[in-house]
Design brief:
The protein is an alpha+beta fold. The protein contains eleven helices and 15 strands. It has a single domain (9-394), classed as 3-Layer(aba) Sandwich (Beta-lactamase). Helix content is 30%, strand content 16%. Strand 11 and strand 12 (340-342) form a beta hairpin. Helix 3 packs across helix 7 (211-225) and helix 3 crosses helix 8.
Length: 406
């Protein structure tokens, strides 16, 4: 999960949810009036479509409004598909896509999915495993030289976050990014930061969420697949599933169409929880750990495909669910191989540079939830808070208090 806080910049937690170190220089947004924005007092929730019961619709709407109000979320797109015959589907937008213009949130925008990218990257790796082109027991030094402990770290440990590999979001990276937030970062630059770091633990010793793990897997996927990551993603995943709005960008700017503005806590007024900065825009710092872009509709399809393991052999798909709690990282009840668990649903979340995201799938009912919000760097992950409330509602309760602990 990618979290980037502005004051101070928090390195590992800041980018994709790991350990942190501080640097005193805040990073502002990339143009225009970037700081001091206040979320509008009036929140409008627009039900785009609903075939669920009126009672469920009212409760979903109330849960969304409560989380957005308590956390100061500018805007959101949420879909709940209850699965099965006659289960019903509910889609809503809420708030604004841009605070300054006041433009309402719409359901057809592009979204940076941040660490949900990891679930795509690991899926590509596991396809190569199914084809006998790589083994999860192979060590990373076969493809990438100079990684600390690389002769002992396996691809499986990188995929399930037990590698202990150094994260790239350390002091050297933060210094370079702060000097020029619009600079293009190559994967080799990011891997050089990894080479300079210190492992957090011996391979296999603990499950610690480390962004470098999935950047390294992206490099393996490219080398073994023989094509750029973007092309392999299209050939093997998005075309196969009809995800027409999902892609891996190759530019700092990333976006190719309309999108919500991303926000993070105000670097000039860190004690004022009501004001927000426009977040930086630089997709190249995320690479195959978090750079992908998608849409709410595509992510609904991905939630099901990911949860079921549609693109994988049955045994390989089942192996992903060998999970346990993270010792450090984003909020999951347990984390497996490119997939995490919340309230016995499986999927992935993401965060960073102004956006928080979630896709979850219930293997029992086939239900799925997508939640996308244009804010990051808060004390908790708003889509996860909302998801837990929705899951609770579907179990006959209201779930956790929106203004309390998720």
């Amino acid at each position: 999960m990618l979290r980037w806080l502005t004051v101070p910049i928090l390195t590992c937690v800041a980018l994709l949810g790991g350990a942190c170190s501080d640097t005193p220089d805040p990073v502002a947004g990339d143009g225009g009036n970037t700081s001091g924005h206040r979320v509008p007092d009036r929140l409008v929730v627009d039900i785009q479509s609903s075939s669920v019961s009126p009672e469920l619709s009212v409760r979903f709407e109330a849960a969304l409004a409560a989380v957005m109000h308590c956390d100061g979320v500018p805007g959101a797109v949420v879909s709940v598909d209850l699965g099965g015959a006659g289960g019903g589907r509910w889609v809503a937008t809420a708030g604004v896509s841009d605070i300054e213009s006041g433009d309402p949130m719409t359901a057809d925008l592009q979204w940076p999915i941040r660490s949900i990218t990891k679930s795509f990257t690991v899926t590509l790796l596991l396809q190569l495993v199914d084809e006998g082109l790589v083994s999860l027991d192979d060590t990373i030094d076969t493809w990438v030289e100079g990684i600390p402990g690389g002769d002992s770290i396996t691809l499986g440990e990188l995929a399930d976050m037990t590698s202990g590999v150094p994260d790239y979001t350390g002091e050297a990276f933060v210094e370079d990014f702060t000097a020029d937030p619009t600079a293009r970062f190559t994967r080799q630059q990011l891997l050089d930061y990894v080479r300079e770091g210190e492992p957090s633990a011996p391979p296999g010793a603990e499950r610690r969420y480390i962004n470098s793990s999935t950047v390294l897997l992206g490099e393996v996927v490219e080398q073994v697949g023989g094509e750029p990551f973007a092309e392999l993603l299209e050939q093997r995943v998005t075309d196969a599933l009809g995800l027409d709005d999902t892609f891996y960008p190759d530019s700092v700017e990333g976006f190719t169409d309309s999108h919500a503005t991303g926000y993070q806590p105000d670097g000039d007024n860190p004690s004022d929880g009501d004001t927000l900065d426009v977040a930086p825009v630089n997709f190249t710092v995320f690479d195959t750990a978090g750079a992908m872009i998608s849409s709410a509709e595509d992510l609904e399809a991905w939630a099901a495909a990911l949860g079921r393991g549609d693109l994988l052999a049955t045994a390989t798909a089942e192996q992903r669910f060998d999970a346990s709690p993270l010792v450090e990282g984003p909020e999951y009840d347990s984390y497996g191989m490119g997939i995490g668990e919340l309230d016995q649903w499986w999927g992935h979340t993401g965060e960073g540079f102004g956006y928080t995201t979630l896709v979850m799938y219930d293997p029992t009912s086939g239900a799925r939830v997508v939640a996308l919000m244009n804010v990051s760097g808060l004390d908790q992950h708003p889509p996860t808070k909302l998801f837990r409330r929705i899951a609770g509602i579907l179990q006959g309760s209201d779930g956790p208090d929106a203004c309390g602990s998720a």
